[in-house]
């Protein structure tokens, strides 16, 4: 209920009251949002077989996620947890076939395994670095990695245990 109050969706009458008022939606909200297709899932761990599947869409704020051709991927794994990317998050991505050092990217490895990692270009290799000390950096030849996009941000589903906090059952 507190989260709905913070989003101005409801108003409680008094602190402990059971009376709840559903507020009118913000008429400008639809103008500020745009749908982004969720096109599959990707690992934030060891590379896994890329699974592209239509899984609906998510509405995002146009100001936070500019661009016309964005896509979203469900994150599976914990290798990027220190960058704030958790298991079951949705990564909002800008499609790109290149990356700059230190960017978090979606990379296709050997044309079949997809992963989300921090990108570094070295003289002879590409380094895909996790953001979790339990995982090791991965090194690949230039012909083994195809950049699919840059991670612009994360949307955390409200129903996930991480989003609910430590007291959630």
Question: Short description, anyone?
Answer:
With 169 residues, the chain is mainly beta. It has helices spanning 2-6, 29-32, 161-164, and strands spanning 10-12, 20-22, 33-43, 48-49, 51-52, 57-61, 71-76, 90-95, 104-109, 113-121, 126-129, 138-140, 145-155. Strands 3, 4, 5, 6, 7, 8, 9, 10, 11, 12 and 13 form an eleven-stranded mixed β-sheet that branches. Strands 1-2 form a two-stranded antiparallel sheet.
Could you explain how this protein is built, in words?
The protein is mainly beta and 169 residues long. Helix content is 8%, strand content 42%. It contains 3 helices and 13 strands. The protein has helices at residues 2-6, 29-32, 161-164; strands spanning 10-12, 20-22, 33-43, 48-49, 51-52, 57-61, 71-76, 90-95, 104-109, 113-121, 126-129, 138-140, 145-155. The strands form 2 sheets. Strands 3, 4, 5, 6, 7, 8, 9, 10, 11, 12 and 13 form an 11-stranded mixed β-sheet that branches. Strand 9 (104-109) and strand 10 form a beta hairpin.
